Amino acid sequence: MTARTTSAWPSTRASMDAKDALAPLLHKAPAARAQASSPGIRMAQVVASHSDDRHDVLPAGERRPLPCRRAASCLLVPAPGDTVLVAGPDDDTLCLIAVITQADSRQATLAVDGELTLASRRGGVALRGAGALELQSDAAIGIRAPEWNLSAERAQCKVSQLDYQGAEVRFSVLVSRFVGRACEAVLDRLQLLTRSSFRVVEETEQVRAGHIDMQSATTLRLHAKNTLVTSTEIVKVDAEQIHMG
Closest Cα partner for 59 from 31, 28, 30, 100? Predict the structure, then answer.
């Protein structure tokens, strides 16, 4: 009995020594696997921007920049120096999911690759800016609404060609000025009511009408260097006094 107990003790001691030697390796293995697994969500800083969707970021605790792509949910375009959140299964497939702090908060750009629609199902949509508000398109700008209201202290409109179609137009202005090289109007009826009218024609004025009726309450004066009054049938001059010469 004593001999058997003595011979078993060295075998047990050797097994314990082997486990003690492997203990550091067994503790390091999970750490290595954890490092190779998903890094989760981390803070990072943008160090370079190659386009709106491709950037180089430096995660916290890293020494070398890593490439990442801007996620579709992150509409704000990052810029170098911004603090962002990145996430991904590994360092080679990181995605920039949010911009936390901008290095320059005076300007921001929202960009998408495809069609963009801003919609409110039950309310309105308002665009407000302390500075200038600019609408720019490489194709066209369309406005469709049952009612359109425009209020401004001053407006400037520069259009190469304008086509307007409508049922009725009303202008209520104090002073109106038109400057152009040619003016053409095709109307069924023209009605003009004014207190005073003054017109200057430098060259030729021609009127073609089926019937002309001119009436003056006090005086009608025709004066020219040469005056011709002709008629194919009748010329009638009727007054209480007629002075000729």
Answer: 100
For the stretch 95-124, pLDDT in tens is 999 999 999 988 888 888 888 888 999 999
* pTM, rounded to two decimals: 0.57
Tell me the pLDDT tens digit for each residue of 53-96: 999 999 988 889 999 999 988 989 999 999 999 998 888 889 99
Within 10 Å of residue 44's Cβ, how many Cβ atoms?
Answer: 26
DSSP β-ladder status, 83-88 and 66-70: unpaired
**Which pairing describes strands 66-70 and 94-101: parallel, antiparallel, or unpaired?**
parallel
Per-residue pLDDT, 39: 58
CB 39 within 8 A of CB 26: no
* Burial status of residue 58 (CB atoms within 10 A of its CB: 0-12, 13-18, 19 or more): middle
Architecture of the 38-112 domain: Beta Barrel (2.40)
- CB-facing half-sphere around the CA of 67: CA atoms within 13 A: 6
Q: How many CB atoms lie within 10 A of CB 156?
A: 5
What's the farthest any 2 CA atoms get from each other in the chain?
Answer: 170
Question: What is the four-CA torsion angle of 103, 107, 109, 110, rounded to 10 degrees?
Answer: 90
